């Protein structure tokens, strides 16, 4: 007889493992299916994010930032160093150690919460039966009152540049390079492409980014995107907009790229080519066809509560509508576990923060100025440059600005956009404020410590009504 659970989660990434932990906290007998194996062949929790995504990329971004600043920024502080070099192997080892610590920490949380980790590939069958094929090919069968599908996503492969894991690589390959390329090509000017380009550019690679769209960071506020492009170009990133890769040819030592733009066809040669054109839901062997699960294109169709068309079957994270962000999936995981336990749950999809961990960082929440204008909204806009911040000056981090968009009549904050140091942290003041329906005046009247970068948020809020203190207000 199949072992019975209250909840079985298929997928151990940020959506799945969080859902499992929350379900267990609520007293539900819980299991989580995860098939991930580390490069050493060891089972690992955390999915793409912890193993080859969010966490390792931030580790390399941090290391490369320190290197670049030691090489080019220390002298401004009167710090003299000589012969700054990079040990790529040590940098990668540090990244791998961080991954092991965090994935091991999740395993410990599973033990502490009495969650059964079913190692292998899980497939949903009718009547909420889950069959798990372990790494030796043995199949075990389990039964659940509720099944949460959380299998995440996988990098999109394109015909013009098929991944070979040698010269044409995905983000996981870019995180595991053992040498600094002389030339690195990147297809895709989105989050992954920009972050990986930043890492290897700081370490000395010549980086060319091919972005098929004519606009840079189309999802971001136009003014922020414009300033970011200017900053990245100054750093040495060669961002080519309207550049569509047509074909690639690989050899043992390089990869040749043919691309087109308004000026015709061109050829470039690189040591490696990173394909970072987005991700697609990972649904291979996730659900047996007999289940008759309704799909929405490549994603699983769900209602506003993340329930599928099958009673007792839920789907969360990258599998379903909305941005493919770890924190969005985690919040859905908590919400679904709460709903299963009979508790009220709500996820505000209008207030999902977006972050790009370049230098300077880019972060935003809510509506962009262009979206407000397209919707015909009457708005007021306030901005404050980090160049006018005393703390930013002291940090040598004066690039960028804070931009706040508010409703012209009611002053409710509609969007906040930040380009600058620590934008990934600063944006959460805006998320909290907007979740309580704050006006720009609410933020402007709150006392902020001096000197801090956060004062720039206050000043931008004051600027909405032309009342900024530490800059000239435009009439």
UniProtKB/TrEMBL annotation:
Q: What is its EC number?
A: 1.8.1.4
- Where is this gene product found? Cytoplasm
Comment field (misc): The active site is a redox-active disulfide bond.
Cofactor(s) of this protein: FAD
Species name: Wohlfahrtiimonas larvae
Q: What class of enzyme is it?
A: oxidoreductase
Report what the protein is called. Answer: Dihydrolipoyl dehydrogenase
**Ranges for domain FAD/NAD(P)-binding:** 5-333
Q: Which reaction does it catalyse?
A: N(6)-[(R)-dihydrolipoyl]-L-lysyl-[protein] + NAD(+) = N(6)-[(R)-lipoyl]-L-lysyl-[protein] + NADH + H(+)
Q: Which family does it belong to?
A: Belongs to the class-I pyridine nucleotide-disulfide oxidoreductase family.
NCBIfam families registered for this protein in UniProt: lipoamide_DH
The cofactor note from the UniProt entry for this protein is: Binds 1 FAD per subunit.
């Amino acid at each position: 007889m199949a072992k019975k659970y209250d909840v079985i989660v298929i997928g151990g990434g940020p959506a799945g493992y969080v859902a499992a932990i929350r379900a267990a906290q609520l007293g539900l007998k819980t299991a989580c299916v995860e098939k991930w194996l580390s490069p050493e062949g060891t089972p690992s929790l955390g999915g793409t994010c912890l193993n080859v995504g969010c966490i390792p990329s931030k580790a390399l971004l941090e290391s490369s930032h320190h290197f670049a600043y030691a090489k080019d920024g220390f002298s401004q502080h009167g710090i003299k160093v000589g012969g700054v070099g990079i040990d790529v192997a040590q940098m990668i080892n540090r990244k791998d150690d961080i991954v092991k610590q965090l994935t091991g920490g999740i395993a410990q949380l599973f033990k502490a919460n009495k969650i059964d980790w079913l190692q292998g590939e899980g497939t949903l069958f009718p009547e909420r039966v889950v069959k798990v094929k372990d790494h030796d090919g043995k199949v075990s069968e389990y039964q659940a009152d509720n099944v949460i599908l959380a299998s995440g996503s996988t990098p999109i492969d394109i015909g013009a540049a098929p991944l070979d894991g040698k010269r044409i690589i995905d983000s996981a390959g870019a995180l595991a390079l053992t040498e600094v390329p002389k030339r690195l090509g990147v297809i895709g000017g989105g989050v992954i492409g920009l972050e990986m380009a930043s890492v290897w550019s700081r370490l000395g690679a010549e980086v060319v980014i091919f972005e098929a769209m004519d606009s840079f960071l189309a999802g971001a506020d136009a003014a922020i995107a414009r300033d970011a492009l200017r900053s990245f170009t100054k750093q040495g990133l060669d961002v080519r907009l309207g550049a569509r890769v047509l074909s690639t040819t690989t050899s043992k030592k390089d990869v040749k790229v043919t691309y087109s733009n308004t000026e015709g066809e061109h050829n470039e040669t690189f040591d490696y080519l990173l394909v970072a054109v987005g991700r697609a839901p990972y649904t291979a062997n996730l659900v047996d066809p007999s289940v008759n699960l309704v799909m929405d294109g490549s994603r699983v169709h769900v209602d506003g509560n993340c329930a599928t068309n099958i009673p007792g079957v839920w789907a969360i994270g990258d599998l379903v509508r909305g941005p493919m962000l770890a924190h969005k999936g985690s919040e859905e995981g908590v919400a679904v576990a709460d709903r299963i336990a009979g508790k009220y749950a709500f996820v505000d999809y209008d207030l999902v923060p977006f972050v790009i961990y370049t230098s300077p960082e880019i972060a935003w929440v809510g509506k962009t100025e262009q979206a407000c204008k397209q919707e015909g909204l009457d708005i007021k806009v306030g901005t404050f440059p980090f160049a006018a911040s005393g703390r930013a000056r002291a940090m040598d981090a004066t690039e960028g600005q804070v931009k706040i968009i508010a409703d012209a009549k009611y002053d409710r904050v509609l969007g906040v956009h930040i380009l600058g140091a620590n934008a990934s942290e600063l944006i959460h003041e805006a998320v909290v404020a907007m979740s309580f329906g704050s006006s720009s005046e609410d933020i402007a009247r709150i006392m902020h410590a001096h000197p801090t970068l956060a004062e720039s948020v206050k000043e931008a809020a004051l600027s909405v009504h032309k009342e900024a203190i530490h800059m000239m207000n435009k009439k």
